[in-house]
Amino acid sequence: MVQLSQALAAVLLASSAVAHPGGNINHEIIRRQLHLDHPERRAVSNCKRELTESGWVREQAVRRHAKLQELRAAAGFSHLEARDPATMESEFSEAAACTLDPESTEGPYWVSGELIRSDVLTGEKGAITHLDINVIDVSNCKPVTDAYVELWGANATGVYTGVAAKGNGDGSKSAIATNALRGLQPSGPNGTAQFITVIPGHYVGRTNHLHTIIHHGAKLLPNNTISGGTISHVGQFYIEQNFLGQVEATSPYNTNKQAQTKNANDMLFSMAKQGGDDPVMKITLIGSKIEDGLYATIDVGVNPKAKQRPEAVNVWTEKGGVPIANSPWAGYPDTCKYCGGRPPTKRDAEAEAEAEMEMLE
Ligand SMILES: *[C@@H]1O[C@H](CO)[C@@H](O)[C@H](O)[C@H]1NC(C)=O
Ligand SMILES: *[C@@H]1O[C@H](CO)[C@@H](O)[C@H](O)[C@H]1NC(C)=O
Ligand SMILES: *[C@@H]1O[C@H](CO)[C@@H](O)[C@H](O)[C@H]1NC(C)=O
Asked: What GO terms are given for molecular function (predicted)?
């Protein structure tokens, strides 16, 4: 039986009080812990030497710098001084690098069938963010060139599109009709997926985060969606707390009435920071203030052979979001099968029983 530490038991005990609206994140914490304890776990930092020697780290640092210059020029700001490539190499994997794993839940509001598109704004307002995600296969230390990276997040006032649910921010009935802030991008020759989105707003029980899913072997359909394939990873990206505070002070974030949870009080955030991972995006101002736009980067490690089975609550169609019959998230947070978060696998269930025993001791 998996031996869980007293520290983990304490985390679980503390987190039963702090949950998703109507939910409970203990299952998710256990999944993350099991991933951290897995003997074959590899982090992005395990690939630092190989990716540096192949020249990829330097190329990507130069490419990202050029992209930021381009954004600055387009916004009417002067050029940045080029950074020393050796410094960029030495910093690789120390910040904004994480290994996505089965630990992080898709949450109750994943909508499948979204469109392949880079700009996912669809009229949403907020801190416009040009996000650059590099995907690395941590099993062979090569960029993943043939994946689809899916991204979604809540809008600036903490509401997810594509769903109508009581627990979804203001409980909006109209959000189901839009696919704003959701989309997919192919990873391409350098393993890079680029999006234009906004810094997600906060909602009850969680700190601000973006969701991601990595698809492999999916087929591109004529209507710019994908079908089939496998999903190796389900993860979340975060924002540094001081900077987040500045974003939250801008409009329209400052009109969000939902209670706010800071990174430090979000158990999933704290656990995502463990094991040499840093799921906090590296964010640079394009101009002189947040309203001029942001450039964000993150490197994510995946094992393309891993198979996760996240469950969508709705599917995006020409007619808007359509509920998936029998989705275990349907009815969240009141009547769903997954109301307490995704149930752990059989192996996780053993660990959970163990943790509960330790808590009773
Ligand atoms: C891949 O990276 C190289 C080196 O930075 C760059 O020249 C090339 O344009 C990139 N390709 C894509 C599709 O981004
Ligand atoms: C977020 O979405 C909800 C539901 O569609 C909407 O009422 C709200 O105005 C949106 N927030 C912003 C900042 O546009
Ligand atoms: C795209 O095509 C698939 C297959 O025909 C269909 O099931 C899906 O609803 C379509 N999606 C959209 C957004 O039109």
From this structure: iron ion binding; oxidoreductase activity, acting on single donors with incorporation of molecular oxygen, incorporation of two atoms of oxygen
CA dihedral 248, 250, 251, 254 (to 10 degrees): 40
* Angle, in degrees to the nearest 10, between helices 346-360 and 26-37: 110
Residues whose beta carbon lies within 6 Å of some atom of ligand 2: 124-125, 155-157, 159, 170, 172, 174-175, 252
Verify whether ligand 1 is closer than 6 Å to residue 192 (CB atom).
yes
pLDDT tens digits for range 1-39: 344 565 565 555 555 444 444 456 676 777 777 777 776
Q: How buried is 189 (Cβ within 10 angstroms: 0-12 exposed, 13-18 middle, 19+ buried)?
A: exposed
Ligand nearest to the backbone CA of 190: 1
- How would you class 207 by CB atoms within 10 Å of its CB: exposed for 0-12, middle for 13-18, buried for 19 or more? buried
Q: Which two tokens stand for residue 64?
A: 């990202």
19-324: which CATH topology? Answer: Protocatechuate 3,4-Dioxygenase, subunit A (2.60.130)
- Position 84 scores a pLDDT of 80
Residue 220, ligand 3, Cβ within 6 A: no
Q: Break the chain into its structural domains and give their ranges.
A: 19-324
Q: Please tell me if the CB atom of residue 190 comes closer than 6 angstroms to any atom of ligand 1.
A: yes
User: Which of the pair, 79 or 252, is modelled with greater confidence?
Assistant: 252
What are the start-end ranges of the E strands in the chain?
97-99, 111-112, 128-137, 142-143, 147-153, 182-186, 192-198, 210-216, 219-220, 226-227, 230-237, 282-285, 294-302, 314-317, 320-323
Distance between CA atoms of 11 and 334, rounded to whole angstroms? Answer: 25
Categorise residue 269: left if φ over 0, alpha if ψ from -120 to 50, beta otherwise.
alpha
Ramachandran angles phi, psi of 130, nearest 5°? -90, 110
User: Which ligand has the nearest atom to the CA of 112?
Assistant: 3
**pTM reported for the whole predicted model:** 0.89
Instruction: Give the atom of ligand 1 at the shortest distance from the alpha carbon of 62.
Output: 5
Ligand 2: centre distance to CA 161 (Å): 9
Amino acid (1-letter code) at residue 215:
H
